[in-house]
Amino acid sequence: MTESIQKKPLKKGSLVVLDREKYINSVESLASDIELPNYVFEGPGEILGIKEDYAQVRWRRPVPDVWFKLEQLKEYTPEES
User: How far apart (Å, rounded) are the C-alpha atoms in residues 78 and 68?
Assistant: First the structure.
């Protein structure tokens, strides 16, 4: 039943987490640190802006904003944390 419900597209202001499986198998992961901090997978991060296939994400921590590919992000749900 839940498969028939369409996912909402991510947009500015959406709360997100990084999808570990999609990120680890990506070209971007090869150009980054071997292990990312857990907070990017636990969230939430907020999308500040979108440019083409990338989203700028701000975490609720004193760290710089990060650009991730939209396909590597998924909507944050509180039960994931």
Answer: 21
Tell me what pLDDT residue 24 has. Answer: 87
- The pLDDT assigned to 1 comes to 47
Strand partners of residue 54: 51, 69
Domains in the chain with CATH codes: 2-74 (2.30.30)
Q: Which residues pair with 67 in a beta bridge?
A: 56
User: Closest Cα partner for 66 from 57, 75, 74?
Assistant: 57
pLDDT band, very low/low/confident/very high, at 13 (cuts 50, 70, 90): very high
SS3 27: helix
